[in-house]
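To illustrate this point, we now present one chain and its tokenised fold:
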Amino acid sequence: MEVAVDARNQDCLLFLHRIAVAALIVPLVALSGSTSGEDALQVGLAKPILSPDQSFTEALAYTERRLRIMPPLVSREQFQDFVETTRRELFEQVIFRGAASEWRRSPATVEYLETIPHEQEGYVLKKLRFEALPGMWIPALLYIPWHLHQQAPETLRVPVALNVNGHDRLGKAAVYKQVRCLNLVKRGMIAMNLEWFGMGQLRSPGFSHSRLHQLDLCGASGLAPFYLLLERGLDVLLEQPHADKDRVAVAGLSGGGWQTILISALDPRVTLSNPVAGYSSFITRIHHHTDLGDSEQTPTDFGAWADYTHLTAMRAPRPTLLTYNEKDDCCFATAHALPPLLAAAEPAFALFDRGANLQKHNNVDPGNHNFEKDNREAFYRMLAEHFARDDFAIAADEIDVSAEVRTAEELQVAMPEKNADFHTLALQLAQHLPRASVPPDDPKLLEDWRERRRTDLRRLVAWEHQTPQAVLVDSQMLDPWKVSRWKIRLANEWTIPVVELSPENPRRTLLLFGEQGRAQLAELARQALEQGTRVLVFDPFYFGECRVQQRDYLAALLLGTVGRRPLGIQAGQVLAVATWAGQTQTVDLITVGPRAGLIGLVARAIDPSRFHAYDPQDGPTTLRQVLDDDLSFEQRPEWFCFGLLEQFEIAHLKQLGE
């Protein structure tokens, strides 16, 4: 057991140690129909204080109040300033932070491999791979019309299309995607079929999207590889000798739709965009939970600078087709996803008198989550309207290419034996972390150093000081102890459920919380009570009664995207309870579990004056554990606080708590 406590508090250390040892000797009593004191205490701790799903509802409301709203735009000049400012903010503040800025500046290597001729079908298929960032190779396919492959005049230029895929395990071999690429090349276009992280040939644990947060922990944007994959894929496509840089399309389904709007809004080279059932605004997601999900679609700090309404409007006046599905059984159904995007984008297109360039398509057959024939033909019609020339026609009806669809094995691209992924990149970055300053030896300078580092930590975890307001729910005697149940309110945004257990004439106060919730702490609480200690057992956000019941990590993603940090919110709640509880008694703290332990360490480091002693039972020893054990965001959401490992380790947090 590790105990963070200074020499002045040895009596508190001994007190906490006695409780810990007793807890190890006396097992937790299972909840049953008996009337023992332990069972009664456990029942009392487990009794609900909050309304069902209250913490999740509060998290959604907290997020919504901090989202950026699409500003009114009254002139083209104002719109252009809005686009340039938003693009710059997203690049500087979100996408290319930390090591990601170096990744973008590094040269990208492209290697062309096998070329497969299909003269009778009218095209060639080129296999290639390129680096999204140093050491991270992406497999791709190029579909090139036969006549261009046969030394066509250099002056001949044809439209090009970047085809991205979503969460389809087949990746670039997905049939609906192959059919689209084949139809485009048979219309005389150059089509690129791009692989995506976690799919197809890149389907491995290291490319699991929730592991992008390992990069966040190290202070490098986990969104950067996603954007660089798209940007450098577009580079390769436009480097083709016959690519027309004025006729560049991007299209994709679901996660491919998200990729489509991301690159189409932020890269001015994309002249035509067709995202299919790929995104909705953050506000829409708060009210339609089917749309919640995916770490890359809710990236850290993104929503603090822009919403997807902004990205949609930023397409003006370039041709944009928003395709959604009437009965989408996955996410982003037409009725709720499309209207807010149109409402944001239509005024922007109107500024340029190009309202017709913003189009919508609602698929009803089959109407589920798809990019099948009806949706593809809507895409072809959009291409025909904007890319056709007198000497270049684009048919709207789909060509039957079923005989030309290939297996995943046939489309396999040779890859290096070792390929960087999110996990290996994070391990590489972590070798040089944290970049912490050394505390001075001079005692006069030491406290100034600590306060500067505390300021850094407060900023890093986005801690907000909030004055607690306590509301008594009820009170009763559980002989010989008084049991009071409280709601601690913070700025009318968060509610912390607290059970106060008081012996007669308590000598000190103990705060107690753990990852499994209040009921599982009955034995620790009883041991403290028997030593004459007032005990406050509570659940901060994510634990016990404050746990989000389904896919709790989604709430953490939302909080992170508006610039807040679950770790800072949780630590703030611990400090608020300590502030309220410590008005008449000295306060000690015990946490149970590594997640709770990190929260306690951060709370004490932010404001050590609130605590006399702290015992993190089963607490963390290193932040690198999530990298060493290759954990995902779902497993420990608060640990993946952006840049935490870049500046701190557990030992540093303990130093600041002294």
